[in-house]
Every structure is written in C-alpha cells, then in structure tokens.
Amino acid sequence: GDVGAQHIAEALKVNAVVTKLDLTYNNIGAVGAQHIAEAFKVNVAVTQLGLTVNFIGAVGVQHIAEALKVNATVTELTFFSNHIGAVGAQHIA
Question: What are 59-69's pLDDT values in tens digits?
C-alpha cells in the first residue's frame, strides 16, 4: 500500500545497488506513487520499475511522469492495470 511505498521510497533515496524494482500487486495508490516518484528524482541505480496492477490513477502517474523528466536512469517502466485513463495516458506520453 501507500505506507509501504513510502518506506521503499525512503530506502531508494540512498540505494546504489538495486537496479530492478517490481512493486506489482501492492495496492499502491496516488499517494504511494508520489513517494516513489520523489525517490526517483534522486535515485540513479534503478533501471527497471514495475508498478503493474496497482491503483495509481491519473494523479499518481502524473507524479511518476514528472520524476521521469529528471531521471535518465529508468529505461523500462511497466504500469498497466492502474486505472490511469485517458488523462493519465496524456501525462505519461
């Protein structure tokens, strides 16, 4: 959930080892996505991020999209089945 995502995000801010992170099926919502996004603004180790089958929504994907504008390390992102809709798709496009 969002609280777990917050804890993972804090660890990611100082991570220099983990390169692949799969948070599939973790009930992460927009708040959790915001925490993850903040971490990815400073994390330069993770290249693959999986957020499939969560509840990120359009607001959450907007946070992720903003983080990816400053993160050049993530090369693979999966986030299908997150209820992002057309608005969320526009954020990530």
Answer: 999 999 999 99
CA distance 13 to 27: 21
Instruction: Evaluate whether 2 touches 31 at the Cβ level (below 8 Å).
Output: yes
User: Is residue 43 within 8 Å of 71, Cβ to Cβ?
Assistant: yes
- The DSSP letter of residue 54 is S
Residue 12 half-sphere exposure toward CB, CA atoms < 13 A: 26
Which parts of 1-93 are beta strand (E)? 20-22, 48-50, 76-78
Instruction: Point out which residues pair with 78 in neighbouring strands.
Output: 50
**Rounded mean pLDDT of the chain?**
96
pLDDT tens by residue, 18-36: 999 999 999 999 999 999 9
